[in-house]
Design brief:
It is a single chain. The strands form 6 sheets. Strands 15, 16, 17, 18, 19, 20, 21 and 24 form an 8-stranded mixed β-sheet that branches. A 5-stranded antiparallel β-sheet has the order 6-1-9-8-7. Strand 22 (726-728) and strand 23 form a beta hairpin. The N and C termini lie far apart (97 Å). Helix 24 (788-819) runs parallel beside helix 27, helix 28 (923-930) runs antiparallel to helix 29 and helix 33 (992-1005) runs antiparallel to helix 35. It is an alpha+beta fold. 50% of the residues lie in helices and 11% in strands.
Length: 1254
């Protein structure tokens, strides 16, 4: 320790001490250390008593300052909190007043508009009656208005009136004539009313007729009943509701025509409305002032008297008022009132749809000069009667907003003869509470919290300074964890040790002076003559990284290579997103198993997974641990592949792992540099890779070293010797073993079966069947036959996948309609009564429906402005169930005997169409990323010919792919014509199989049980017609043998893409741009499904070979059945080459030429050319394999001894010997003897044949 007196300490020097040191002093002091020790522990050289006292005083002053700042902050927090609370409260009160004023104003305005609409309508009815009487030369009061029931009911539907009646004014001298007139004419308009009710309201009409026929007791006694349905005299109610003739008076106003018609015959006709107290009063007002009059408030009790069922019981309590509207004899100024139009109105009609939906309730109090008051509550679009009187909350009296109903404009005040109404709007407690929230308290708390937070920040700052060392340590720990996740622990430690502190790193070299540079250059020339100069200048690891490489030898490990069998072929027919979905899902599942087994994951290389046991921590039973892991990984892969098939499509469940194990020493270390990683090297890695590559699918193949370790570990029953030896490059022939953790092994033949079922797909093309014991070969095939439940399960998974694909496209169709703000809604699909439009078949066959130009929708900007994400659309369960049932029926309708034209092939075509459709640029997706620039979207729409802008077009393409080979007979159309098949006669020998497929599938779709599904696909005639046209065009496009259809497609291509043949005479220069785009879309769609129908020829070699063999088997079966004259095996090789040259490759080139499929067109062309080359080299031998295997399956009897006829074993190598590889140059055929495209049609190329030209 330095001497305390060696350096004087003053306040200025003390101020230079960091605050962190002061805090350290306090911490140390709390632990009981002395002052000298404190200063010594901090490393400070000022240790005398004076400096210690000063430090303590300064620390005390800082603490006092902190307390003072804290108090000030608390005071400010309290003041600002109160101010904030008052401010926010005032804001809410102001907003509340403003919103209520707006609501009251809206209610007033809406009520006025509604009232004006009601009175305008009544005025229109009045004027129409006047005009009708004038034009018909009717003399008042002797008028009968035809169709009054219809006119009045329309008026009632607009005004909301319960009833509407005409009451003509009859003078006393006209009384007798009037009574005779009513006797003669009342029956006519009553019959008209009942006839209208019988058509519009048959239930009411039946009940009305029931009362008449059964003569049940009516609600009041009747004496003078007339068969005509009216009283023979002008009457009024007497004692006991008895109808009695009205006493003589100067004029009468009897009720006459009215709507709706009463439920049963009633003496309402000729009821004098001018003899009942209030009615007389209001009638006089109308006649005297010639203005409409609004009566006092009454209930709807009379409705139940004359209308038994039409009006609910609640109408008896709902407030009504009569509107008395004058009807004039003429339209001139000197007009006279000759009748009164009597409308019985509900008061709530004035308040319907006043408030927006979801608005909190508001009260409206109606008050009249007739001393009547009622209260309504408005809830959104409805108005509910609360009760009689002013029932508003007295707390809100000061907020009431009043207005008079005379503001309706047509309801002027009639002094002494009408009731004048006013309404007052009040808020409710619920409405008020929605505007008074907890925001004042929240804001106040937020402001106070900000001040308190400032105080806490100071406290935290002190704590953070004290904990700075722990923070650094925590950061180091996190770094250590990240490194540990990338490297083993011992490697991590080595890496951490080699990281130099910043101060120890070499400083940058200063640039030398010119003289020094010259001397250095001269010295370097002299040194260059030394032999060791180049070696010394080499940039080795020590010079690059400053340390020795990080590497170790691990003498006892077991390495696993797990490769995905069939992945390359599977990925060639999928979209990139589907490929990565599979890899990520599978690798994640394997990662979980690896972690559980405590095995080290090394890396993934493409579709190969590498793991190692016994590293970095030595493990005595590393071989057993890896064996268990390999077994678990195989099982997990099987589970995942089956689960993914419904999402990723057919053949996903056939993917499996081929695993190889080997034990031995490895060199492991970090290969430093850019993106450095931990890697393993050595012969053990090479042998493990050989074990994987020479292994078999769904098996764990291991070397003798690994097998010995497993046997030594007491698990000898897991080891099954492989009967044949394996040749490994650099190792020669090796004895290897299979892992079998099952309790027992099934013996030599069982093992052979397992091997045969798992042989690599790459091998079988050059193999054929040996002449070994035929019984063994038959047993082998029979054992390999998939169980029936597996076949059913596979079909079920295909159906699930197809439903998923079509369902996703249907969601896009629905989202598209919702985007266009159509009347369509998801809820409407649940309405079984709503039927979609039905297709009306025109006369003629389907060939007449093929069009040159499909009519696709135009570009619509609303699709981008109001975009609806299809992922947010949920189809009703009924639609999904119907879609699944439809796909299931179509799957069952496919011919199970066909090896090629099967439901599985239809799924393959759907997959190809889906992939190619996803390659077309979608203007919606691109434009939504680039913003609201619709011009760019329009350009993309034109570029893609609108194919991706219309979801119905895409759904129709998928549907056509699903049905295009439905119920295919397994022979070409030419064979059906030759056999005089009824279908050939029905379709006139043209595209027989294709037309039949459309007819059958369309018949299934049109069945009543699929009504909701059809309503989801199309909602109007235009959509139905477009959907049908696309389906017909695309399915018939798969018939490439029809010369007429081929010529039409050739013509469309010339028109659309300006081929070298020049413009056709019919190609008018005035053809609009829309037609040009649609023509291109039509020909591209047809080429798309043609390419998809034979997509296997433009996909991976394994995929092509699989479907080519299935097609061969189907054609050969037709030959064996006597339906074909020529053995297809005799010309299959040459026919394939010709088909590639004259159809497949030109088709792929045209897909690329149209320019809408992106990289997929180049991919298809590349695969087509590669497959042709492979076929030229190996095709002859493959045809022999096809034929021999067909005969083997046939020898097992009907159904192949349980073997699936669709070729489930076509990829299996079932031989012990191979045919010598016979390279031969394939001739360029001048003709093709026999071939079948996706429609299984035998082809013959003649000089004038253009069927292969796309």
């Amino acid at each position: 320790m330095m001497d305390n007196s060696s350096v004087p300490l003053d306040r200025n020097s003390l101020a230079m001490i960091p605050i962190t040191e002061e805090i350290d002093l306090e911490v140390a002091s709390s632990n009981g250390d002395t002052d000298d020790d404190l200063l010594s522990n901090t490393g400070d050289h000022h240790t005398n008593n004076t400096s210690t006292e000063i430090a303590r005083n300064e620390t005390r002053m800082v603490n006092y300052s902190k307390i003072l700042v804290g108090v000030v902050i608390l005071v400010l927090a309290s003041v600002m909190g109160v101010v904030t609370y008052q401010f926010v409260s005032n804001q809410e009160e102001t907003n509340y007043q403003k919103q209520f004023d707006n609501a009251a104003r809206d209610i007033k305005a809406s009520s006025i508009l509604r009232g004006r609409a009601i009175f305008d309508n009544l005025e229109g009815v009045s004027v129409s009656l006047t005009i009708q009487a004038l034009t018909s030369n009717m003399q008042w009061p002797f008028v009968v208005f035809p169709h009054f029931q219809v006119t009045a009911m329309i008026s009632n539907s607009i005004t909301g009136a319960s009833t509407l009646a005409i009451c003509p004014i009859v003078q006393d001298e006209q009384r007798q004539e009037w009574e005779n007139f009513t006797m003669d004419n009342s029956m006519a308009f009553l019959a008209e009313g009942h006839m209208y009710d019988e058509e519009v309201h048959p239930d009411f009409y039946e009940e009305s007729r029931y009362y008449n026929e059964t003569k049940v007791e009516l609600p009041f006694p009747l004496q003078a009943w007339n068969e005509s349905g009216s009283m023979p005299f002008i009457w009024e109610f007497g004692p006991g509701f008895q109808p009695v003739p009205t006493a003589q008076q100067s004029s009468y106003i009897p009720s006459w025509q009215m709507a709706p018609a009463i439920d049963y015959a009633s003496p309402i006709v000729n009821l004098n409305t001018n003899s009942e107290g209030n009615s007389t009063f209001f009638n006089q007002g109308v006649i005297q002032y010639q203005k409409p009059v609004l009566s006092s408030i009454t209930t709807g009790s009379y409705l139940s008297m004359y209308y038994d069922r039409r009006f609910q019981d609640i109408y008896e309590e709902i407030p009504h008022s009569y509107v008395y509207y004058p009807v004039f004899d003429t339209l001139t100024k000197d007009r006279q009132v000759v009748a009164i139009l009597n409308a019985f109105l509900r008061w709530d009609e004035f308040f319907f749809n006043v408030l927006p939906e979801g608005e909190k309730p508001i009260l409206v109090v109606l008050t009249s000069t007739c001393q009547e008051t009622i209260t309504y509550v408005l809830r959104g679009e409805t108005a509910d009667f609360v009760g009689v009187g002013d029932l508003h909350d007295q707390r809100y009296t000061h907020l009431g907003k009043s207005s008079a109903f005379q503001e309706l404009g047509r309801l002027d005040t009639v002094d002494g003869f009408s009731c004048d109404y006013s309404m007052t709007v009040y808020p409710t407690a619920e409405w008020s509470e929605s505007y008074f929230t907890n925001k004042p308290i929240i804001y106040m708390a937020a402001v106070v919290s900000c001040f308190l937070l400032t105080t806490v920040v100071f406290i935290i700052y002190d704590c953070l300074v004290q904990k700075r060392n722990r923070t650094v340590m925590h950061t180091a720990n996190k770094t250590n964890r990240i490194v540990s996740s990338l490297f083993p622990s011992n490697v991590r430690d080595r890496l951490m040790e080699e990281i130099e502190p910043e101060e120890k790193k070499p400083k940058p070299m200063a640039w030398p002076k010119a003289s020094e540079l010259a001397r250095t250059f001269t010295s370097s020339l002299e040194a260059s003559s030394s032999p060791s100069s180049s070696l010394n200048s080499l940039m080795t690891s020590e010079r690059i990284f400053g340390s020795q490489p990080i590497a170790d030898l691990f003498p006892d490990v077991t390495v696993m290579f797990a490769d995905m069998v069939g992945f390359t072929a599977w990925a060639s027919v999928r979209d990139p997103t589907q490929v990565f979905t599979l890899l990520e899902t599978v690798y994640h599942a394997i990662d979980i198993v690896v972690k559980r087994r405590r095995v080290f994951k090394v890396e993934t290389i493409g579709d190969c997974y590498v793991a190692c046991a016994g590293l970095p921590v030595p493990q005595k039973d590393h071989a057993l641990a890896m064996a268990r892991l390999a077994h678990d990984v195989q099982n997990r892969m099987t589970e995942v592949s089956h689960e993914l098939e419904s999402r990723l499509g057919p053949e996903t469940s056939q993917l499996c792992l081929r695993i190889g194990l080997h034990s031995g020493p490895v060199t492991a270390g970090v290969l430093r540099g850019e993106k450095g990683r931990f890697q393993l090297f050595g012969d053990t890695m090479n042998v493990a890779s050989r074990m994987e590559s020479t292994g078999v699918a769904r098996k764990v193949h291991m070397s003798k070293e690994t097998a010995d370790l497993i046997i030594a570990g007491g698990k000898g029953r897991w080891v099954v010797p492989r009967e044949d030896k394996v040749f490994a490059k650099g190792k020669g022939e090796l004895q290897t073993y299979f892992l079998s953790i099952e309790p027992e092994s099934r013996g030599s033949l069982t093992e052979t079966l397992s091997l045969a079922a798992s042989l690599k797909d790459e091998e079988y093309e050059i193999e054929t069947y040996s002449t070994q014991d035929a019984s063994n070969r038959l047993r082998l095939l029979a054992a390999l036959a998939p169980p029936a439940d597996d076949v059913v399960g596979k079909t079920t998974r295909l159906v699930d996948w197809t439903v998923d694909i079509l369902g996703r496209q249907l969601r896009q169709v629905v989202a598209h309609r919702m985007t266009r703000k159509s009347l369509f809604s998801i809820g409407s699909l649940d309405n079984t009564e709503k039927r979609p439009p039905q297709f009306k078949r025109r006369r003629g066959d389907l060939m007449d429906e093929v069009v040159d130009v499909l009519s696709l929708p135009k570009f619509d900007e609303s699709l981008f402005k109001n975009y609806v994400d299809p992922d947010t659309v949920e189809l009703p369960a009924a639609v999904v169930d119907q879609l699944r049932e439809l796909v299931s029926r179509i799957a069952k309708a496919y011919n199970n005997r066909n090896a090629f034209h099967s439901f599985e092939h239809a799924a393959h075509v759907i997959m190809s169409v889906t992939k190619m459709m996803t390659r077309i640029v979608n203007p919606i997706d691109i434009s939504r990323e680039k913003g609201p620039e619709y011009k760019f979207a329009s350009t993309l729409h034109q570029f893609s010919f609108g194919l991706t802008s219309d979801p119905i077009t895409r759904f129709a393409a998928l549907f056509a792919s699903l049905i295009h080979d439905l119920d295919h007979p397994g022979v070409p159309n030419t064979t059906l014509v030759k056999e005089n098949d009824p279908l050939a006669t029905k379709y006139h020998g043209k595209s027989i199989a294709e037309q039949n497929s459309v007819e059958l599938s369309w018949g299934i779709l049109m069945k009543p049980e699929f009504g909701q599904l059809r309503a989801c696909i199309y909602t109007n005639e235009d959509e139905l017609t477009r959907f049908r046209s696309i389906v017909v065009n695309l399915v018939l496009a798969t018939d490439i043998m029809d010369k007429d259809l081929g010529a039409q497609r050739k013509d469309r291509w010339a028109r659309a893409f300006n081929s070298n043949e020049g413009p056709l005479p019919s190609q008018s220069s005035k053809e609009n741009k829309e037609t040009e785009v649609n023509r291109k879309a039509t020909i591209v769609l047809e080429h798309l499904i043609q390419a998809s129908d034979i997509a296997h020829t433009m996909q991976h070699w394994h995929v092509y070979r699989k479907w080519n063999e299935r097609l061969f088997c189907e054609m050969y079966q037709a030959y064996k059945d006597g339906r074909s004259d020529k053995d297809p095996s005799e010309g299959w090789y040459e026919g394939e080459i010709g088909f590639f040259d004259f159809y497949i490759i030109p088709l792929a080139k045209k897909l690329k030429e149209c320019g809408v499929f992106g990289v997929s067109s180049s991919e298809y062309l590349g695969y087509a050319e590669a497959n042709r080359k492979e076929w030229v080299d190996k095709g002859r031998n493959l045809v022999k394999v096809y034929l021999e295997r067909f005969k083997l399956r046939e020898s097992l009897g009907p159904g192949g001894g349980g073997l699936a006829s669709t070729g489930d074993l076509m990829e299996l190598a079932l031989t012990d010997t191979t045919v010598a590889d016979m390279p031969e140059s394939a001739p360029e055929p001048a003709s093709m003897s026999t071939y079948s495209d996706g429609s299984a049609i035998g082809l013959a190329l003649n000089e004038d044949s253009d069927v292969f030209e796309v």
